[in-house]
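Components:
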Amino acid sequence: MIVVMAPHATEEQIKDVERRIVDWGYGVHPIYGAERTVIGAVGVPEADKARYMESLEALPYVERVIAILRPYKFASREFHPEGTVIDVKGVPVGGNQIALMAGPCTVETYEQTWESAQACREAGATILRGGAYKPSTSPYSFQGHGEEGLKILRDIADKLGMRVITEVMDPRNVELVSQYADILQIGTRNMQNYDLLREVGKAKTPVMIKRGMWAKIEEWLQAAEYVLLGGNKDVMLCERGIRTFETYTRNTLDLSAVPAVKELSHLPVIVDPSQGTGKRSLVTAMTKAAVAVGADGLLIEVHPHPDKALKDGAQSLTCAHFGQLVAELRPIAQAIGRTL
Ligand code: PEP
Ligand code: MN
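Structure:
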């Protein structure tokens, strides 16, 4: 169950509620918000819930107590009826404006990243994507430049007034990547890496969790719950395609997951049509569809010379193509009352 403290509740009153829950023998997971504190009580048996809820609700400094039956609580819409808007150093993710995240799959060189970033910025992207630590199916393919790549991303983003999203793969690197990144990306292969999820849950940097290519929506939301439970409430989700029997596309981009997750959860949902299709020729159509179904943001791979890309060239847009795509998206966003 979740205890929503009254907005005027003092520190002592918050502690009092926490103490009661601990005394009953249950786990306490507070989230101290700017406006109000909510306290998750974990492990309360169904049979005792009503009694405990009643006794907490009687306290004048408790606004309400919510029983949540789903396997995720903090990620659920019941817990937070309004959609969450994450402030990425002044760039909102969630809310009316659709966040445009674009850049190369991988940071290869300064010049390549610069060319891509500049074109993306010019077209309207506010968040620069790019991998410095690359998860690769093959141990022989490029693994990324590591910290050098992070430095390149940070430098270019600062020069262009952009934010940085980049992947962190290893719990031991969360602190390091957080020094350079504005959003920590959890890749599809790591969606159920619980040590990593717990570690980014302790970070102060927003987190984007990609859907595991095998993961059910409920499992994906439980991955988000790990991070939220750790105290990091700036969590967004990213649909990037799942494995099906179809091999013509690299993945099957499950766009029905967008409205489904938005029904179940308050977290912003991003769509990645690049990994989602694996084919440049399909990216425009699927991006348009993503906007139409209510995506809160887009993550798109753009390379100045896709034919020379070290990774994911086949799905990367050219700089000109990206500009064209954004122009075509604007009327679609407008038609559903949103801005780009
Ligand atoms: C990527 O964004 O380049 C990437 C590796 O994504 P995913 O984890 O979805 O494969
Ligand atoms: Mn990629």
